[in-house]
């Protein structure tokens, strides 16, 4: 699991600028994960791969095949969930993986918003301008109670 403040590693973004990524997304690119299943007698684990950036028109077969093979070879053996999770993984991967584009874009936007928060000039506490009414005559810091600048 990703820790707070840790960047998201996405396979397929290497060498692309932010503008190139936005352009590809406007053309229909997407972020996907593939599922795989591993079973050990009575224990069955269903997991997702790293996130892959798939450009418009680019196939997912080559990127998802390793996860499909892992499920085919190691997923069936757990009772009762092994066969169930294996079949789910095979269906998900054969349909191009699970689209997580919206979740990735929301995470990036949230990360951008949190890194751009202004701080109270009196106590240094960060604040979100969206938490304050724009028509209010003054804003006050929730931590020290002094007036905040409207930015």
How would you describe what is shown here?
By secondary structure, the protein is an alpha+beta fold. It has two domains: 10-116, no CATH class; 118-151, no CATH class. It contains four helices and eight strands. It has a four-stranded mixed β-sheet, covered by helices on one side. It has a two-stranded antiparallel sheet with strand order 3-4. The radius of gyration is 22 Å and the shape is elongated. The two termini are 35 Å apart. The model is unreliable at 1-5 (pLDDT under 50).
Strand percentage lies at 15-25%
User: In whole angstroms, how far apart are the ends?
Assistant: 35 Å
Order of helices and strands: EHEEEEHHEHEE
Dominant shape: elongated
- As for the number of domains, it is 2
Structural class: alpha+beta
Question: Can I get a quick summary?
Answer:
34% of the residues lie in helices and 19% in strands. Helix 2 (61-74) runs antiparallel to helix 3 (81-94). The protein is elongated and about 65 Å long.
What are the salient characteristics of this protein?
disordered N terminus; elongated; alpha+beta; 151 residues; 4 helices; four-stranded mixed sheet; two-stranded antiparallel ribbon
